[in-house]
Amino acid sequence: MLKKQQEKLAVEKSLDLSIKDGVAFAATTGFGDNYINPFAVALGASNFQIGLLSSIPQFLPALMQLKVADMTERLGSRKKIIVRSVFFQSLMLLPIAFIPYLPEFSQVSTLIGFCTLYLLFASLAGPAWGSLMADLVTEGKRGAFFSKRSRLIGLVTLATTFLAGYILHLFKAHALIAFTGTFLLAMISRYISCYFLSRMYEPPLEVKREHYFSFGAFLRRLNVGNFGKYVIFQSAFNFAVFIASPFFSVFMLRDLGFSYLTYTIVVTTVPLATILSMSYWGRYSDIFGNRRVMRICSIVISVLPALWLVSHQVYFLIGIQVLAGFFWGGFNLCSSNFIYESAIPEKRTRCISYFNTINGLAICLGNLLGGFLATHIPPVLGYRLLTLFAISSCLRIVLSTTLLSRVKEIRKTVNASV
Q1: Residue 288 buriedness (CB in 10 A; 0-12 / 13-18 / 19+)
Q2: Residue 354 is part of a domain; what is its CATH number?
Q3: Does residue 4 sit within a domain?
Q4: CA 317, CA 145: separation in Å to the nearest integer?
Q5: Is 320 inside any structural domain?
Q6: How many Å apart are CA 188 and CA 58, to the nearest integer?
Q7: Up-side HSE of residue 382: CA atoms within 13 Å toward CB?
Q8: Range of the domain at 165
Q9: What is the pLDDT of residues 322-375, one digit of tens each?
Q10: Residue 416 included in any domain
Q11: How many whole angstroms separate alpha carbon 375 and alpha carbon 383?
Q12: Is 279 a member of any domain?
């Protein structure tokens, strides 16, 4: 009885630490991740190089995912691989911060190299973290807990993204030096996140030989099992998304000539809208299921890129971003919860790893195709990137209305058949 009480207290403390980890991670996103592409633009990267910057860092981490479950089982601890991976991920932000002081001809290629390592270490932590959190948060409370955590992450992401943009605006005459400062802040934030992760409780998990299954066996069941059909949908949908995703910042900064402050105002409306949406989507998913939320959200976010063809007025683009934050918030929340609920604890790390491999390769291909098309397709309304946004939108609509219908809700809901 005493042991159960101690374990309950340890779980509660760990959930609190997870919130703090999420807040620190959000600061890394705001100061660092959200400004990788603007940094590349400031370094003079071409559209094709932007495509490479988004694709190559996805390719190697996707392949490494095949070994994450084996590495976790060999270490005998999910927390060990999480903490070690996050530590080295944080370290990669140091050389990224000092790229402006390298010879110009090597800057973009160096950025691509260290961004690859940055995402590689992040990807090693992902499956183990997902498996650990799924054990710590009971099924009926996942929507409420992760929506609360996402709200705080969104709030801090909003504040730090705006602060980073304001710093860049103040020092626009020395923007590359300002980028050094923001990336160093991102590094410090991730190390704080690493500290909180290191203090979390890890429930014991015994993985037996019968729980093992190869990537080949996983591929053979892709079109058979419900989780496999979900992997096909999510990966195909992200392929369509990432054809255009890296180029919205390029379009605003280079084609439309937005200042860093205007750019920041537009992009920070996404986390703001996400914050406002989280409590709604969390309650809705707990009652009606994750699939219904994904279905509603995927249809709306499929249309959004095409709206960029309508107007380039700042207020109109802010309206699009509000919709993006609201519906992407619901989609991402329920996508994660769906994965957590799709596998038993002993197989969860391996399922997430294999999913990440396929999804990561799909994202990589989408980025590569986007980078190629951005320099070869005919322009619409004077801009090639608008053509790219239209292509992405059309593909999203087709995939969201066909592939998601094959996926079934896992847990019982008010109306699971919808």
Answers
A1: middle
A2: 1.20.1250.20
A3: no
A4: 31
A5: yes
A6: 24
A7: 6
A8: 9-201+214-406
A9: 999 999 989 988 888 888 787 777 777 788 888 889 999 999 999 999 999 998
A10: no
A11: 11
A12: yes
pTM, two decimals, is 0.82
Question: pLDDT tens digits, residue range 221-278?
Answer: 888 888 889 999 999 999 999 999 999 999 999 999 999 999 999 988 988 888 888 7
Structure tokens, 228: 């496999």
Cα distance between residue 202 and residue 373, in whole Å: 46
Residue carrying structure tokens 């410090």: 188
Q: What is the 3-state secondary structure (H, E, C) of the chain?
A: CHHHHHHHHHHHHHHHHHHHHHHHHHHHHHHCHHHHHHHHHHCCCCHHHHHHHHHHHHHHHHHHHHHHHHHHHHHCCHHHHHHHHHHHHHHCHHHHHCHHHCCHHHHHHHHHHHHHHHHHHHHHHHHHHHHHHHHHCCHHHHHHHHHHHHHHHHHHHHHHHHHHHHHHHHCHHHHHHHHHHHHHHHHHHHHHHHHHHHCCCCCCCCCCHHHCCCHHHHHHCCCCCHHHHHHHHHHHHHHHHHHHCCHHHHHHHHHCCCCHHHHHHHHHHHHHHHHHHHHHHHHHHHHHCHHHHHHHHHHHHHHHHHHCCCCCCHHHHHHHHHHHHHHHHHHHHHHHHHHHHCCCHHHHHHHHHHHHHHHHHHHHHHHHHHHHHCCCCCCECCEHHHHHHHHHHHHHHHHHHHCHHHCCCCCCCCCCCC
Domain count, the chain: 1
Distances (CA, A) of 78 to 11, 203, 348: 15, 10, 11
Compute the distance between CA of residue 386 and CA of residue 309 in angstroms, rounded to an integer.
6
